[in-house]
UniProtKB/TrEMBL annotation, chain A:
This is GPI ethanolamine phosphate transferase 2. Keywords: Endoplasmic reticulum, Glycoprotein, GPI-anchor biosynthesis, Membrane, Transferase, Transmembrane, Transmembrane helix. Ethanolamine phosphate transferase involved in glycosylphosphatidylinositol-anchor biosynthesis. Transfers ethanolamine phosphate to the GPI second mannose. It comes from Cucurbitaria berberidis CBS 394.84. GO terms for biological process: GPI anchor biosynthetic process. Pathway: Glycolipid biosynthesis; glycosylphosphatidylinositol-anchor biosynthesis. One of its GO terms (cellular component) is endoplasmic reticulum membrane. It holds the Pfam family PIGO_PIGG. The keyword Metal-binding does not apply.
From TrEMBL, chain B:
The keyword Transmembrane helix applies. Residues 1-20 are annotated as: Disordered. Its main location: endoplasmic reticulum. The lineage of its organism: Eukaryota, Fungi, Dikarya, Ascomycota, Pezizomycotina. It is found in: Endoplasmic reticulum membrane. This is Glycosylphosphatidylinositol anchor biosynthesis protein 11. The keyword Flavoprotein does not apply. Pfam families: PIG-F. It is a multi-pass membrane protein. It comes from Cucurbitaria berberidis CBS 394.84. Keywords: Endoplasmic reticulum, GPI-anchor biosynthesis, Membrane, Transmembrane, Transmembrane helix. The chain crosses the membrane at residues 111-136, 148-166, 186-206. Pathway: Glycolipid biosynthesis; glycosylphosphatidylinositol-anchor biosynthesis.
């Protein structure tokens, strides 16, 4: 027993260690160049003449950078676009259109980093994106085109910047802007205010001549996407609004003298999928539009495609015109406005704009500076290879470049390409070689496959295997073999196998739904085997399966059928029908209220009879129950009103069916205060009930009676109210369905092994049924600031986790009750024996699962090159989710919270 | 809590003492029982391309051939329910007017029960299996003919032979559901079909973008293959074994 405990503890402690070690090896290492780039000595004077290095004259001295969040390529270029003015500019040849490929993760902050630095942000930026205030992720000290403009000496002194729109920019660039007005995108139901807040500043700024860069970031279009998808009826009007904005800015450029040399860039930071969400790597999400506009552009657009609207290319329905990388924006701006390319840039100067310079040496210089800057990053990555500016012999390179039968590594390939650039300098074909080198370098450096720290991956995986081995040793014997045990093992084996199929990472929910259905049927069969049940179609297992069928359709999740119809979006909860939703929500709250009231009644009865009765199990009377209900109504009522008030702001279409007068009074309430009242009330009730139970347990000890774990039930019910508070309104009825499933499962008298299997399946099922998936974009932040007015990273982090993992937390606690049959008065189990057997199996299986997930990550690294980018992009978010499951859920919830509930149940 | 179950529970179903079903003891039966799954799979393979192209009408068109194959199989290879060729004889007080001819014997003893099984399969097993398909995630709002026909195919494969062999005895069917019968080729066919159909759902979410991933092609495929495998294993390796559960 003691060794078991030690082994188990060690195993559990090793889990986060192994995950962390694996993570440090898994997240790609990027060489980072500090400092601001400057024009530098290039050499080659002997061949190209002494004055070829003089920076060429820049065609533009101002830039208006207009970002429209989630502006997918077809919103601008497609036939159904509302942006007719931009299309007319494309036809006139005064606008140059591109589709700018955005790499995953397609969320705003990493995208802004890519646009401004030209680098490819790592996945760690995603985590930092959620921890928004984190100062280490700012770009204040990094080389960006904003920093370059600020440092450049213009005619009227150093560059000045102004910024209106998404406050991500203000967080990334603190103290950069002379004038700024940030907008936060907290309530996505806001389609108009966020944009008006930008637009109202523009007319004045167009009259000012003191700035050199004006940045605008519109959020409304993204909000419409999140709310109702790309086909929303609000989408075309919003595009027209954006188009009008473009038109008024463009006409100002045409008419105002001080704006004559202004480059106007319109772009999306990312796109959206058919569900209107983003974050992943589907074509819709990674294909934002990019348009450069200026009357001066007619000089370079003689040979470009001017057709508009246009059909997308075959094969990718979102690829219009030429597909370029989003990072190409930074060096292109550098060339067009005349400043050095930012140091960490991996972008390539867009070849269309070379036409601005008539003389060949100027063009060569521009490209060579760009290539040389990229070469430095390549050099820092492959330190063992030679990237000098002189022609080298084969012997000096250390390998054969131009032989056909040698296979070159990525680094060697780049070294060879650089040699060709060096060889070609001064000939007339250097453009081709420089572009070839830059594009190859861009591809190689942005793919993550080459940058893993293999030894750490191996070490982390080794630790995970050790964890498995340790927990394996703690297992009691496998016999007797039960169907539950077999099913558990099969589920895990199949799960591990399916994780190698990238589409099952995206569609993981399908696996759990499928396995859960099979499990219910198995439960039915094994129960019918024990005793026949005449009304077998109403057998609890069948009823649980019916409920499961409803639960799995509640939210459509995953990538393949993103945006497909589900119960939430079918319209039965929207508009005037929303009273259906609120009736169900009300029922859920009512159910919880009755339960909590019962606990409070019990506690009152405890004190009422404290002195005079010997028996510890005092039944509460009607009188107590009434007082209990009266005591609980304010708490649950506040929680309900909070949900109503929050939803009215967050998703007004879900409260449209509630009568006006009530909503008006609700909308004036202070949301933060309400949430704090709910949390405070929950804590108070918890303390009160715990105190009463403590009194009872003292009595029980005195009279040597067994408790029935009522405190664990109370803890579960209070926790349920908390979890509901952290859940979106449209998902709250799911808890009623969970409760039903719990009721049916209770009737089945599950064995400990069966409870374990059920827990695994239902925690996973509920996670996905609440609308989550393995995509970063599915993380819901709307409930992460409940009760918090300022920014507190610990509290927000905890609330983010609890609101996204609410379903698993619920089932994890529910399974404790299933396991011990708490609160019921009849059953006697040998608690100690049960405790060991079940917890141990449970632990071990989770550890196995975890190790397998890591194994998978490792496997994908091993085959990384063959699997290509797609898998790397997929495994990264999946690994983040696996981390969350492994550390926060397994250790935080299953072990700690579950252990707490179990311990409370033993009072 | 357990009392609620007890209120409805009539009895504990005893394990079956019946021997596994043996195919009829003649050469034709012994031969045809192995040819039959080949024919069924051929029928499936033959119609596969049109199944992918147009699932609903193909499933409808292959329903009759499958039913004929199954009826032929049970009539040739399996002993009908009760094992006695003439059921009419059992009724008391009825005059025996004439001795039935051999052909009539065959008709009464085999073809009639076979068609009765078909009727029961169509009326009872198909709706039941369709309902189970829906519970397992078949679309509710669309693809109604697809799901119903898929249920019909699964029913024909799995339950028709079983009804033919075991009739409608409630006790036997309880044992069927509770997995208490000894395994034979008929019971193995049922388990194989159902498990196969369940496993058939696995490829649907994969991103292979193949036409055959659409509903319900993979389910039907799983059912056919599962039937052949289950029947083969049930008739040979696992014959007479019982499913041990606890």
């Amino acid at each position: 027993m003691a060794t078991r405990t030690v082994l188990l503890t060690v195993a559990n402690l090793l889990i986060p260690v192994s995950i962390l070690i694996f993570a440090t090896g898994f997240f790609p290492y990027k060489p980072f160049m500090p400092g601001l780039a400057e024009y530098e000595e290039l050499g080659w004077n002997r061949i190209l003449g002494d004055d070829w290095q003089k920076p060429p004259a820049a065609p533009f001295d101002k830039v208006i950078f207009m970002v429209v969040d989630a502006l997918r390529s077809d919103f601008v270029f497609g036939e159904e676009s509302g942006m007719s003015f931009v299309q007319s500019l494309i036809r006139d040849g005064t606008a140059l259109p591109f589709t700018a490929h955005a790499t995953s993760p397609t969320i705003t902050m990493p995208r802004v980093k890519a646009i401004t630095t030209g680098s490819i942000p790592s996945f760690l930026d995603v985590i930092l994106n959620f921890a928004e205030s984190d100062t280490t992720s700012t770009l204040a000290t990094q080389d960006t085109w904003l920093a370059q403009i600020k440092a450049k000496q213009f005619d009227n002194g150093k560059g000045k910047l102004v910024m209106y729109g998404d406050d991500t920019w203000l967080k990334l660039f603190p103290d950069f802007f002379d004038r700024a007005d940030g907008t936060s995108s907290f309530f996505v139901s806001d389609f108009t205010e966020v944009d008006n807040n930008v637009t109202r500043h523009v007319p004045n700024e167009l009259l000012n001549s003191d700035w050199n860069a004006m940045i605008m970031h519109y959020l409304g279009l993204d909000h419409i996407g999140h709310k109702a998808g790309p086909k929303s009826p609000n989408m075309i009007p919003k595009q027209k609004e954006m188009d009008n904005m473009v038109q008024s800015i463009y006409s100002a450029i045409e008419n105002e003298d001080h704006l004559a040399n202004t480059l106007f860039v319109l772009c999306g930071d990312h796109g959206m999928n058919e569900g209107g969400n983003h974050g992943g790597s589907s074509p819709g999400e990674t294909s934002p539009a990019l348009v450069f506009m200026s009357p001066k552009l007619s000089k370079v657009t003689q040979n470009t495609i001017k057709e508009s609207p246009i059909k997308p290319s075959r094969g990718n329905e979102f690829e219009y015109y030429r597909m370029v990388e989003q990072s190409d924006i930074a060096p292109t701006l550098a060339g067009l406005l005349g400043f050095p390319v930012p140091r960490n840039n991996l972008g390539v100067f867009l070849t269309e704009f070379l036409g601005f310079w008539d003389e060949t040496p100027n063009r060569v210089q521009l490209l060579y500076r760009n290539a040389k800057q990229m070469k430095k990053i390549v050099e820092a990555t492959y330190t063992s290879l030679k990237f000098t500016d002189e022609v080298l012999e084969t012997g000096e390179m250390g390998f054969e470049c131009f032989s056909l039968n040698t296979h070159l590594t990525d680094g060697q390939n780049l070294a060879c390409l650089w040699q060709r650039v060096v060889n070609a300098m001064g000939n007339n074909d250097e453009f081709e070689h420089i572009y070839k080198f830059m594009h190859e370098a861009q591809d190689t450096m942005s793919s993550t496959a080459s940058n893993y720290d293999v030894s750490r991956l191996v070490f982390g995986t080794g630790l995970a295997i050790l964890v498995c081995a340790l927990s394996y040793l703690t297992l009691p014997s496998f016999r007797p073999i039960t169907p539950a045990g077999i099913y558990y093992a099969l589920t895990l084996v199949l799960y591990a196998a399916l994780m190698f199929a990238s589409s099952y990472v995206e569609e993981e929910h399908n696996f759990w739904y499928w396995a859960t259905s099979g499990w219910y049927i198995l439960l039915l069969l094994s129960n019918l085997r024990k005793e026949w049940y005449d009304k077998w179609f109403f057998h609890p297992a069948i009823m649980a399966l019916v409920v499961h069928r409803v639960i799995r359709r509640w939210n459509q999740t995953g990538q393949k059928y993103a945006g497909a119809d589900d119960i939430v979006n079918s319209g039965i909860f929207h508009g005037n029908n929303s009273f259906v939703l609120w009736a169900l929500i009300g029922a859920t709250y009512m159910d919880i209220m009755i339960r909590i009231a019962r606990h409070v009644a019990r506690s009152i009865a405890t004190f009422d009879n404290l002195q005079n009765v010997q028996n510890a199990e005092i039944e509460s009377t009607d009188h107590h129950r009434m007082i209990g209900t009266v005591a609980v109504v304010p708490l649950v009522g506040t929680a309900f009103v909070f949900k109503l008030a929050f939803t009215a702001k967050d998703a007004p279409e879900l409260t449209a069916g509630i009568t006006g007068g009530m909503m008006e009074s609700v909308e004036t309430l202070n949301i933060v205060g309400l949430a704090q009242m709910v949390f405070g009330g929950l804590a108070l009730s918890g303390i009160w009930i715990a105190f009463a139970e403590w009194q009872r347990s003292k009595k029980r000890v005195a009279t040597r009676q067994e408790g029935n774990g009522a405190l664990a039930v109370a803890f579960f019910d209070l926790m349920a109210l908390f979890l509901i508070t952290q859940t979106k309104a449209q998902n709250i009825p799911l808890y009623l369905l969970f409760r039903l499933q719990f009721f049916f499962l209770r009737l089945l008298n599950l064995s400990p092994a069966a409870v374990t299997t059920t827990t695994l399946l239902l925690t996973q099922t509920s996670f996905f049924a609440l609308g989550n998936s393995n995509a970063i974009s599915s993380i819901d932040l709307s409930n992460s600031y409940n009760g918090i007015s300022g920014y507190n990273i610990t509290a927000v982090g905890a609330l983010v986790f609890l609101s996204n993992w609410a379903g698993p937390v619920y089932w994890s606690l529910a399974s404790i009750l299933l396991l011990g049959s708490h609160g019921s008065t009849q059953r006697y189990i040998e608690t100690s024996e049960l405790h060991v057997a079940d917890w141990v199996t449970k632990e071990r299986e989770y550890l196995n699962e975890l190790a397998r997930k890591e194994e998978k990550g490792r496997e994908s690294r091993r085959d990384g090159k063959e699997w290509g980018r797609h898998v790397a992009l997929l495994t990264l978010p999946k690994f983040l989710f696996a981390m969350a499951w492994g550390v926060a859920w397994h250790l935080g919830v299953t072990v700690w919270l579950g252990g707490l509930a179990w311990w409370l149940g033993t009072w | 809590m357990a009392t609620i179950i007890n209120a409805n529970a009539t009895s504990k179903t005893p394990p079956s003492t019946a021997p596994p079903v043996e195919p009829l003891n003649n050469d034709a039966a012994r031969l045809y029982t192995h040819i039959h799954p080949v024919l069924v799979l051929s029928l499936y393979a033959f119609s596969f391309s049109s199944l992918v192209a147009d699932p609903a009408s193909t499933l409808l068109n292959t329903l009759a051939p499958l039913a004929i194959l199954q009826i032929a199989y049970v009539a040739v290879c399996l002993p009908p329910t009760g094992g006695t060729p003439t059921i009419r004889k059992q009724k008391p007080g009825e005059k025996r007017s004439r001795v039935p001819s051999k052909l009539e014997n065959g008709l009464n003893g085999k073809i009639v029960p076979a068609f009765l099984s078909l009727l029961l399969t169509a009326l009872a097993a198909t709706p039941l299996l369709t309902a189970i398909l829906v519970l397992f995630g078949a679309p509710v709002t669309t693809h109604h003919p697809h799901t119903l026909l898929c249920g019909a195919h699964v029913a024909l494969l799995s339950t028709l032979p079983l009804v033919y062999v075991h009739g409608v005895n409630g006790e036997t069917w309880r044992q069927v559901v509770a997995l208490l019968l000894p395994i034979d080729e008929v019971y193995g066919g049922l388990i194989g079909t159902v498990v196969g159909a369940w496993l058939g759902a696995v490829p649907i979410p994969l991103d292979w973008d193949r036409e055959w991933q659409k509903w319900p092609v993979t389910i039907v495929t799983g059912a056919y293959i599962g039937y052949a495998v289950g029947k083969l294993l049930g008739g040979t390796l696992l014959k007479g074994k019982k499913i041990m559960f606890d």
